[in-house]
Specification:
Blueprint (H helix, E strand, L loop, with lengths): L11 H12 L10 H7 L9 E6 L11 H6 L5 E7 L17 E2 L6 E4 L9 H4 L4 E5 L10 H14 L3 E5 L36 H12 L6 E4 L10 H4 L13 H10 L19 E5 L3 H10 L5 E9 L9 E9 L10 H12 L11 H11 L4 H6 L4 H6 L2 H10 L19 E3 L7
Parallel strand pairs: 1-2, 1-5, 2-4, 5-6, 6-7
Antiparallel strand pairs: 3-4, 7-11, 8-10, 9-10
Helix pairs in contact: 5-6, 9-10
């Protein structure tokens, strides 16, 4: 979940939109989360066990109680250790920055960082643990690193016969959208670990099933606690759930959708609104004229994406007082456009409309390397430099998307496949042949 350095900005329209999305949600959620279903069973799957919890501030039940609080006060088992992914267990550490081990001041429990000296839980971290519980909200994009943490946790648990319980959560992009390139193995990394489309259309629990069967050399003992009331066609606003920031630069559901649309740009130094009220929903630069950019973006006719001119002045920091302008992409929750294509379309437009602009002309080797890793494509930069039309590049992803639409079918828990479920417990066996 990489991003370029923050530059603060201000926009009244964007601020109102962002705040509306943060607080959107019905008084009573339509969806009962995995953690809610676990509570309803009186923690049946955890009884008699010593538990480690992987979570961050997004790990809350539908009433807003943190997973830490819920499990710490649960009965019949013992929460003994906490683990934090990128940004830390409190979600405050910036993108790509190392997170230190600490101790939770509320429970006194040790907090082990899975984004510091190691990104895999070590034997010492896992000592005395019977079950690892994973409860983290994801974005549904391959480069958002929580799913890499999930895979590493499952891998290390399988080596030690430790059970993994995934408390399922919605895919905020919905369970139908699949788009973007598959992964080139040559650029496999922590920001692109699996050969899946960039937008893969699975919940964390469904993806865990796939990881267990297709990614791990030895499957772990995996249990998914399924949601109740979630269907594949739901967007976040349909769930009735409040959005809790998943990381510092994803404070709203609008930012979560925007991450899919502009996330590639920050890797090569193009402003995407980080630090503004609408992070990942902006394409901007130093004193660009928005008019031709708005016109060119509108000419793309992206279904469900409204394009508006955007101006702001950075506040504080190295670039304090600098003026930036470009476009604001207002993405409808039910849009049907190809969001992953927008970053590349932006590059094509900027190369054409901004005098002297070169997407990769001033990038460092590290930035070019990260662009390849985040996109999952070793040759994408070269294709863009050579002038290959973005429309051709996007079409070249289609075959991989079609294959994935079939490959994922055995792992779907909410429509299109019959889950292995116990209505009495709400607990789903997440891997064929592996008992919960």
């Amino acid at each position: 979940m990489r991003s370029m350095k923050s530059r603060n900005s201000f926009s009244i329209l964007a601020l109102v939109t962002g705040l509306f999305l943060v607080f959107a949600g019905n008084a009573r959620a339509a969806v009962s989360l995995g953690i809610d279903e676990l509570e309803k069973t009186h923690f049946a799957v955890l009884q008699g066990k010593r538990v480690g919890l992987i979570t961050n501030p997004s790990g809350v039940d539908s009433k807003g109680r943190s997973a830490i609080d819920v499990l710490y006060h649960g009965t019949g088992f013992q929460l003994v250790r906490l683990f934090g992914p990128e940004h830390g267990i409190y979600g405050k550490v910036g993108a790509g920055r190392s997170v230190e081990d600490t101790r939770d001041p509320h429970t006194g429990l040790r907090v082990c960082s899975l984004y510091g000296d190691t990104r895999r839980p070590t034997s010492e971290m896992l000592e005395g643990i019977d079950t690892l519980v994973y409860d983290v909200q994801d974005l549904g994009c391959r480069s958002y690193t929580f799913i890499s943490t999930l895979g590493y946790v499952m891998d290390e648990a399988s080596k030690r016969n430790i059970e993994v319980v995934v408390l399922d959560r919605p895919d905020p992009l919905g369970g139908i959208r699949i788009e973007g390139p598959r992964l080139d193995d040559s650029v496999k990394s922590f920001v692109g670990l699996y050969d899946i489309p960039y937008v893969y259309g699975l919940t964390p629990g469904e993806l865990a099933q796939w990881i267990n069967v297709k990614y791990l050399d030895k499957p772990c003992r995996l249990v998914v606690v399924a949601m109740h009331g979630w269907t594949r066609g739901m967007v976040w606003e349909d769930t009735g759930l409040k959005w809790v920031p998943t990381s510092p630069n994803i404070p709203t559901i609008g930012a979560a959708r925007g991450y899919t649309a502009t996330g590639f740009l920050g890797e090569i130094g193009i402003e995407s609104g980080i630090g503004s009220p609408v992070p990942f929903q902006v394409v901007a630069g130093s004193d660009w004229d928005p008019a031709p950019l708005v016109r060119q973006f509108k000419n793309l006719h992206i279904p469900g994406v409204r394009v508006l001119p955007y101006h702001y002045v950075s506040e504080g920091g190295r670039w304090g007082g600098s003026s930036y302008s470009g476009v604001y992409l207002q993405i409808d929750p039910r849009n049907s456009g190809n969001l992953t294509a927008i970053s590349l379309q932006a590059i094509e437009i900027l190369e054409r409309e901004i005098d002297g602009f070169s997407a990769f002309g001033r990038t460092t080797a590290d930035e070019r390397d990260m662009f390849a890793k985040v996109t999952g494509q070793a040759n994408l930069r070269h294709q863009l430099i050579a002038g290959r039309p973005v429309s051709d590049i996007v079409r070249s992803w289609d075959a991989g998307v079609v294959r994935w639409s079939q490959e994922r079918l055995p792992y779907l828990l909410y429509g299109n496949a019959l889950p292995k479920t116990s209505s009495a417990t709400g607990v789903i066996a997440a891997s064929p042949g592996i008992a919960p």
